[in-house]
Write a sequence for this structure.
């Protein structure tokens, strides 16, 4: 019986760490977006790539996809995890 209680505790701890990891990943994604938004990295890349065949358009396009992809992923993880946790809590309260 003690072994079962220990397994349940370990499963809860693993689940909590997974949730915390997902929230941290989303915060890192949002922080990377803010870093790219407020830095000169993109403008420097465009200046370097203007000498190429297509000019700076592909660089703008790819960095825009990357930058806003980070933002969407970061916000989506937070919203989805919060929704799942709230839904789980309300189900537990309704079952009591």
């Amino acid at each position: 019986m003690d072994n079962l209680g220990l397994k349940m505790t370990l499963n809860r701890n693993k689940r909590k760490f997974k949730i915390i990891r997902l929230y941290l990943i989303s915060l890192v994604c949002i922080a990377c977006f803010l870093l790219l938004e407020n830095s000169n990295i993109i403008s420097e890349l465009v200046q370097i790539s203007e000498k190429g065949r297509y000019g700076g358009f592909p660089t703008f396009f790819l960095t825009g996809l990357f930058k806003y992809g980070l933002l969407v992923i970061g916000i989506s993880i937070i919203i989805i995890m919060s929704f799942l946790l709230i839904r789980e809590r309300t189900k537990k309260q309704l079952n009591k």
